[in-house]
Design goal:
Helix content is 27%, strand content 31%. By secondary structure, the chain is of the alpha+beta class. The chain has one domain. The strands form 2 sheets. A 7-stranded mixed β-sheet has the order 1-3-6-7-8-9-2. Strands 4-5 form a two-stranded antiparallel sheet. The longest helix is centred in the N-terminal third of the chain and has 15 residues. It is globular. The two termini are 28 Å apart. 36% of the residues are buried. The N terminus and C terminus are likely disordered.
Amino acid sequence: MEKDMKPVCFVSLFLVVLSLPRLANADNSQLGGAEFTETTDLSDAVERFNAQVNRISKVGRAQPPLTVDEIVASIRAWDRKRNPIEPGLLTVFHRIAETQTLPADSAIMFTQSWIPNGDYEFTVWWVDIYLYYPRPDSDDSKFVYIHRIRDRTISSRPRQGGIAADSDSLTLPERERLAAKHFAAFVSGADAKQPSDNKAVNRSTQSRGH
């Protein structure tokens, strides 16, 4: 069953970004959205995400609601020169667009605060697809691949401090291949409406989306 994410601080979720450095200091206390532990129709996922935004995000309520068309268009417009990605993982996103479904171990999340350098805090409205997949070196944590759907910078104000970034020995292509392998059943259609077996809650993050 799907479950809504509460507006809590994900202490263990660190954003490690190679191609999108601006994400590295996203304020995780300003994350929210909806997670899905089984294959879910994109229309249902969007409906749950928008409902959650309306409940918990003042910033989000001022933005246009997310739509299925917007998600599909963001995938179809993927520029592999600007945002390189392993072919196997790109196939997962193409499957999302073609079938208008999300795989198990996925989420649609928003971020509404960004601290790029510790000097200023920015109010932003980022909407992303998260794909969670197991770390090969840990049974109680996951990597997260983030695909950016919407990116808006709204305002800024002075602030000190930032969010620490995690590190890992695996290269980005190695992580992407792990993600592609994890979602292979979704690409083949073999996991339709099957729940996820992943129970880990400690997640490290890797992003290569728009």
